[in-house]
Predict the structure.
Amino acid sequence: MTAGRGGAGEVPGRLVQPRQVVYHVYMSLPRPLCARISRELESELERVFFEQQWNPSEGLRRILLEWLAVQKFPRMEFRETRAGRRAALRGGPEVWEVAAAAGPGRAMSAAVGQRFAGTRTEALEEALAYAKEYAGQIDPIVAREERIARL
């Protein structure tokens, strides 16, 4: 609030509410995010961005998305492969492999359990839940790998 200056409709010396202008923009553009980080963290991020050949915006977005996915699916990790970064079970198969074994329904079955006999059922179920939630990322990998296997 500010003190009025005696303009039209104002009383000198009296506090008045400043005018507020609110803009509503309905666009699907990413929203900027600012954060203070240490120089050490900045250096580490720059190293990762360089290694992955990401620009800072893309790199930070990917890191955050992976972190959020791991919070929801704690048995997951992201691995660097010849085909790029892929979701996988910690110490186990990649998610696309589990999804491919389960078939289009992405449901746990005895066949999936047998195919990945050394992996706990809970982990396989989590991989399938991840594959369902991130079908837009996993389904194209499954389709590509199945095409390659048919060659």
